[in-house]
Each structure stands twice: as C-alpha cells, then as structure tokens.
Amino acid sequence: MIALLRVDHRLLHGQVVFLWCATLSPDCILIASDDVARDELRKTTLRLGKPSGTKLVIKGVQESIDAINSGVTDKYRMIVLVANVQDATALAKGCSQVKEIDLGGTKPSKGTHPISKMINLSDEDESNLEGLQEQGIRVFTQSVPNEKPVEYKRR
Amino acid sequence: MRKILLASHGPLAQGMKGTVEVISGEQPELEALCAYTEECPDIRRELRRSVDAMSDGDELIIVTDVLGGSVNTEASQLRNVRGVYVLTGMNLGLVLSLVVGLSSPVESLISQSINEARAQVCRVDPGVVLEEECF
Prior knowledge:
By secondary structure, chain A is α/β, with parallel strands linked by helices. Helices cover 36% and strands 26% of the residues of chain A.
C-alpha cells in the first residue's frame, strides 16, 4: 500500500529520512523518476542515504506504475517519491491506488510561480493538479509530519 | 517533561538548533548553550541553572560537542542528577534522531540515536557501488 506519495525535487533527503520515516514507518521507499533511473551515480548516492531497515527501489515512472498495478508492492508500506508534479500526475492517472498527493517541495524554475514557501508550480502543473482533484484525488502541501497539511487550491 | 540541551564551545549549539529546525520545523524542547560567548560566559553556572530548573520527573538530555572538552567536562559533573543524561559527539544525525524519537523510552532513545549517529560518520567512497534493490 502507498502510505505517502510525495512530490519533492530533493527526492530522498533529511525530512523524508528522519521525519516521514519515523512517522509512517515504511518498509519500502520507491523513487519513481526517469532521470534518476538512468543515472548510476545518482542512484548510488541516493542509496547511500537510505534509512536503515527500509528497502529502496528506484524505477522509471512507467515501470513504477506497472509495478504498483501488478500487485508486487501491495505487501509493503511504501513511501513513493517523485521529483515533480508531472510525474505525480502520471502516477495518479496510471494507478488507481493513488488517492492523495503531498506537495513537499518543488524548486523555482522558468515558468513557475510560488504557491507557498517550498512549492513552485507552473500553470500546467496547476491544471494537472486541478484535474486530479476533480477526479477525487486529494492534493495537499505538507513539508514535515508535525506541520499541518494545507489543502491545495488553485488560485 | 523531556528536554534536549545542546552545549558547545562557541556557536555550534545555536547553529545546530537552527539547522535541526530547518529540517524538522520549530522544536521548543531543544535549547542551546554556547559557552565562552557573551550570552554564556560561565558554562558551569548555565548548565547548573538548567538542571535546577527541572521539576520532579523531568528529563534533560545534554548533548555536548566533544569528549574531553571543557563543556563536556562540566556537563559530566551533573551526570548523577536524577533525570540528567549526558551525551557527547554532537552531530546533526544524533540530534535529529533524538528530536524525532523524543517520546520513546529514554534509554533506548539514547542508545539508538548514538548508534545511528555513529554510522553516519563515514567516508563517501568515490568507488562505492550499491546493489539495485527490487520489490
């Protein structure tokens, strides 16, 4: 089962390793990213920082969707990390198991505007998220577990 | 009530608190003492003050910067006070583990946090290869 699907450009980092893992006690972390899946240096770097007692699986986005839908991930309590809203949208559209998306952090880039201190979205991101909400998927912003989640609303 | 008191030579303790809070948000139970600064010219007195402020049943985990340093020596003098625990070798992994697990039983919290922090002091080997994991 998916305990958390989080959008975070840093993927696996301090807040996830120390805080989300302590709160959710996952036994598996899935990083779903085409960029990372084909970058051996980055994959090993991420594996170095993995929390003890947790499996870390790194796959491309479509492979991740296929794995989740095949049922092989059902036995895990899993945190799924994606780097951007585009990948989160693909996962949510491809997997009926995805009911919620946590916007944890997206850095500013060309064409984005800040919607909170940690979240920067493009118009396309906002349209995608709104579309998911219309399909009944909950979208919220929350950096760390002890912070109150804020429901996402397009301005 | 359980508190964590960071104590260092100079500004490390305050900086550590700030860094922990960048990652984990505000932590009111985390306090900092920076010895040999204007705010804390007498570390013995300040440590004593923190310990004297404890009520029955309170716990104070003091984390100092380095074994053998004067700050740890002063803190260690208080190690037999009921509810006081003295740790040294402050690093971010240690303090984060303590903060995250703060509500767990104190003995296991301390031993687990130290074990995790120890494992974090390592060289990142340029040639390291870690095996792919599958579901």
